[in-house]
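Query structure, 534 tokens:
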């Protein structure tokens, strides 16, 4: 670890730890209003056009989905649909809608709104980056005013789970079409427990309680209306300012707790920390497998052997994340333990041997060379604290075995565009998922090149296994074929999976009834049991 990084880390830790000694100030938030803090804003709140967590945490409060996800991250519960049937061939789902649901403007929900919402999601003109999550849709039709038939071209074993995500929220056709390109920036009309009031980008987004709401998911004690009258989502990029705002009574809750502050937060008597074990958000270094240098499996395997993930995670996440091995979290559905065992552990001597045996010889400048090609590669990523810290440490670890890693980090406003190009050899990324099938289909299907399949992974066998898993009606068959994919990728090492983030939701004693959920990275899901107590 360099002195620069160590000094910055220690200074940050000292600053955040000192917050425990700050005196609490008088409450400044209006009665029955809750202020929630976050690090960044979304570019828009169009559920079909944004994949940002910052969009999802707001949209999930303004919409409902046909089905909902329990706290365990696996069990499907009723939502707008009070019941459903699946045809024996797994191709047709029939959803029976509740008859007491209204949008924020008072208009009753009908099957036509569901049909419109799903059709808009999968319409190529919408250009939704997550349209694949709706499955291979053949037709979605209203059988009557409160019955929807959802027909697929082929079975999709995880359809119900996908329909719990915020992308699958149901919106009012009339308002959505009236707003046009301004949908999700100047207005929104959903059936959720909260309704759109106003948005000032990079500052505040305000939501008001839906007074007629009575149809919340059964995982909540309160099915509606919400106890809290108004929610203000406030953007505070600086981590010390977020924590200070919590302690001084200027805010009520945040899931954007900097890892270095976790221990300090536990010592603040007016702040509580909640966690969620069934939360899947991973950090990784991915490689474009068709680029020079990183196209060599020996290089990728040596990198895996040379990076001490235990030390790296301690230095970057301060105990707020767990070191990872292969691609999938052990708590996720269809995780394969054998694939984890296939990933080599930290062994820099073995890394040197791997490179020697592959013909990579040490050059005069300390960087290995093979057939005139230096062992050097370029990494792109977004400018985050995690990427700044881990890039420094990984650079040093790889330099010791004769590999040069060059890094360029970008602000998110331009970074996502750069990450969609072929300009780089590797990339830093973090992402949410709810199962092995969800993660593997997102990143490893050749159809998803060049993004999110930034590895340019194009393997017919992988595609065949993924297709078989998607269509499997037998969970055992799905688990077996997805295990094949996990083992294949463990052998080829196209990713260095680094850390599994833990979810922390910090809230003050002013509110009660919060519980961290974690679906698609969103901690506060619906917020129906949340109360202001003083």
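Result returned for the query:
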């Amino acid at each position: 670890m360099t002195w620069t990084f160590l000094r910055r880390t220690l200074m940050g830790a000292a600053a955040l730890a000192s917050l425990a000694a700050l005196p609490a100030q008088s409450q400044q938030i209006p009665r029955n209003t809750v202020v929630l803090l976050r690090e960044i804003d979304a570019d828009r709140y169009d559920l079909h056009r944004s994949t940002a967590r910052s969009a999802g945490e707001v949209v999930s409060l303004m919409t409902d989905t046909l089905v909902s996800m329990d706290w365990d991250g696996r069990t499907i519960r009723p939502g707008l649909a009070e019941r459903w049937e699946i045809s024996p061939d797994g191709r047709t789902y029939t959803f029976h809608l509740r008859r007491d649901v209204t949008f924020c403007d008072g208009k009753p929900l009908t099957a036509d709104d569901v049909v419109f919402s799903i059709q808009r999601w999968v319409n190529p003109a919408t250009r939704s980056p997550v349209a694949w999550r709706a499955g291979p849709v053949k037709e979605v039709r209203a059988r009557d005013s409160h019955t929807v038939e959802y027909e697929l071209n082929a079975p999709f074993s995880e359809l119900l789970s996908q329909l719990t995500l915020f992308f699958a929220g149901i919106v009012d056709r009339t308002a959505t079409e009236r707003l046009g390109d301004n949908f999700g920036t100047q207005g929104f009309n959903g059936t959720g427990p909260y309704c759109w009031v106003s948005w000032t980008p990079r500052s505040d987004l305000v939501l008001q309680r839906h007074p007629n709401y009575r149809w919340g998911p059964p995982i909540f004690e309160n099915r509606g209306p919400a106890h809290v009258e108004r929610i203000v989502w406030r953007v505070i990029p600086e981590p010390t300012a977020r924590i200070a705002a919590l302690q001084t009574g200027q805010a009520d809750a945040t899931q954007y707790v900097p890892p270095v502050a976790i221990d300090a937060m536990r010592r603040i008597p007016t702040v509580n920390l909640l966690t969620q074990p069934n939360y899947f958000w991973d950090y990784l270094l991915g490689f474009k497998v068709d680029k020079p240098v990183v196209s060599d499996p020996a290089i990728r395997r040596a990198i895996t052997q040379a990076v001490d993930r235990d030390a790296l995670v301690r230095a970057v996440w301060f105990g707020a994340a767990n070191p990872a091995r292969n691609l999938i979290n052990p708590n996720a559905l269809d995780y394969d333990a054998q694939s984890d065992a296939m990933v080599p552990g930290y062994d820099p001597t073995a890394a040197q041997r791997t490179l020697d045996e592959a013909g990579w010889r040490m050059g005069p400048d300390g960087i290995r060379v093979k057939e005139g090609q230096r062992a050097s590669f370029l990494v792109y990523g977004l400018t985050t604290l995690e990427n700044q810290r881990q890039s420094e440490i990984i650079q040093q670890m790889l330099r010791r075995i004769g590999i040069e890693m060059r890094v360029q980090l970008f602000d998110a406003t331009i970074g996502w565009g750069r990450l969609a190009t072929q300009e780089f050899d590797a990339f830093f990324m973090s992402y949410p998922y709810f199962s092995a099938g969800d993660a593997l289909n997102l990143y490893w299907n050749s159809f998803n090149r060049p993004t999110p399949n930034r590895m340019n992974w194009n393997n017919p066998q992988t595609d065949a296994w993924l297709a078989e898993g998607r269509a499997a009606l037998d969970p055992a068959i799905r688990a077996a074929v997805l295990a094949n994919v996990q083992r294949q990728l463990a052998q080829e090492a196209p990713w260095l999976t680094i850390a599994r983030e833990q979810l922390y939701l910090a809230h003050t004693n002013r509110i009660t009834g919060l519980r961290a959920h974690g679906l698609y990275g969103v901690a506060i899901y619906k917020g129906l049991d949340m109360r202001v107590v003083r």
